[in-house]
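Render this sequence as a predicted structure.
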Amino acid sequence: MKLKLLASLLAAAVTLSLPIVFADDLDRDGDRHEQGDRHRHHRPRAADLAACCTPGDQDFPKVGGNLGNQNYSRLKQINTGRIKKLGAVWLNQIEGGLLSGTNQSTPVVVDGVIYVESALGNVVAVDGRTGITKWKYTQTRGTLTRRGVAVGQGLVYTLANDNYVIALDKNTGQVAWEKQHHGWGNVEKVALVYHDGMLFVGTNDGSRGAALALDATTGELLWHFWGAPGPGEFGNDTWEGNSWENGGATPWIHPAVDPELGLVYFSFGNVRAGSSQNGSTRGGDNLFANSIVALDMRTGAYRWHFQSIHHDIWDMDNVMSPVLADVRIRGRDRKIVVYGSKSGMYYILDRRDGSAPLGIDEIPVPQEPRQKTSLTQPFPRQGGWTENCVVDQPLGTAIPGNPNRAVPNYERGCLYAAHWDVPILSIPGHGGGADWNHHSFSPSTKLMYTGFGYVAAAHSLTESSNGLRPPGEYQTGGIVAVDPRTNRVKWKKHLPYSLAHGNGILTTASDLLFIGQPDGNLLALCAEDGEELWRFQTGAAISASPITYEIDGDQYLAIYAGGTGIPYGNSAPRGDNLWAFKIGGTLPQAVTPTPPVVRRPVSGNPVDGSVVNNTVVLARTYNATSNTVGTTESTAVNGMAPTHMVVTAGATVTFTNPASNPNAHCATQFFEGLFDFRLSPGQSASYTFDQPGEYFFNDCHSPRPSGKIEVLQ
């Protein structure tokens, strides 16, 4: 290593951590972007954030890349001809090797410095060329989950617990000001957006939330707009009684901004009002839940809205960071906004007035009067980009099989199946579709891209929270490319993991597409057809967007690999790995971590079969501490005693329905279809497990109780 160079770098920065770096990777290879520096002053600079859709260049100045959230860069030194030579040049473990927590922050780059937030919510500034930490701001109000800073007018903006907005000096990390904003919802998680002296701030996870605009110089509130309007405000009459008071509808992801039109576009989340699944006490469409709303950028005045789901009872909130694009539709140049996430469909809207240039129709949907369901729901005339009905694939056929495959014994449905007291399984699910990842629009290919997930969910008033993701289901996903000029799928690629939770996409002018997976692999695909061209193991799950930037003529690619719990819980490998890559990099890949558990786990910890005499008692709960079986029949998710039994190959397991249970019960094994015991009260049946593996089963009386036999060698 060139010690003299390293010493000078250390002396020039406030160094809090040192990356793993090869010194020869600091040398330039003489190969430069085809557009020389002498031409760049003719182009708008990405970091100015002056127009909606300026592509990334030497900077990638905000989460989403630009104000239009296109996640696109004009850089193309890294291209299909050189992709095999792409390698890592440095690694910075920004918290010193932290292996826990929730990482959802996407980095940004301005003037060669990367700014990213860790699982603790701390802000770290890293030299984009060397990987050396320049400064670190440590949260003083406790750990919190963050999704990205904003950078503007010499400041870096972040959030803290107790609804604080904090401005840091861009060069030193020193606090410039702090401002608390109570009363508008949780000001905590959402990535911040800076434009022209203003900060746009979303709120999250509260009983009622507002979109906010702040003065970026002082932090003072300029305006607010409620997701659930109060009395006298437009939209309040779409809420029954006072249900608006805890209506939810929080804008929990960052907005898009079009300075030319003077509009900011927020998307608002699901209804809460006691329960996101219970519509019985909140009749009406419940504006502005499940909506995109265009507001006057300077005043917050309402301009137009589009509600993608009326009177939501499925937690299908379609919150996404809207993507702005200028395209030609049916012979006319159109300024569009692309919107849609969990429902697995894109709503293509004219961003000036909210009209639908390709058509959106209100289609009748199933009804449940007790839920006060909407008579219709809006569907793009071209359909969606993913399936919206679960598939009844017979047990004993290919495994895992169709990604929309239904777990057995559930009542099966499609998107917008009306429910009440019986769980109805549907797809894409409230954790599926595109959920809260970051989409990309490439002006080069003229295509929209998103990762997505297949995470079927069962909804009814018997389910807590937002619905039940059945234990044993495979949670997979893929990537889809859609032409926004026609709203038709160009290509679709199935992958082994859900890519719906922070797994953003970056596209570049070289027609490459980059995305990270929950197993730690960073992928490069051909943006034209989805062919995989390159992959690199980062050592931790990726729940952020890749970014690219340029320093001294060299194009770099960077990714923050840290991991989050959605949808794979603690099985998603954690870390704090900020990586940078360029052509010719030679830093080795990380050790491959244990991959996430793709199947939804059962409730409860493993129990050795010998402790319970290799017996599962159906429709009863189990207390592992006292090794006792519940005394009454149960249809709870943990209504198998025990839910998770561990045995060795060759063991025989007995399934029994107690004589005191009033109903017949089943042990239906899936998806192998090894057995389907239907037992009257007092009956038992046995099965011998010869092969190692995990074998899920549930009950035909109610599919909610689920169990697993884990067979070891």
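Summary. The chain has two helices and 50 strands. Residues 1-17, 21-40 have pLDDT under 50 and may be disordered.
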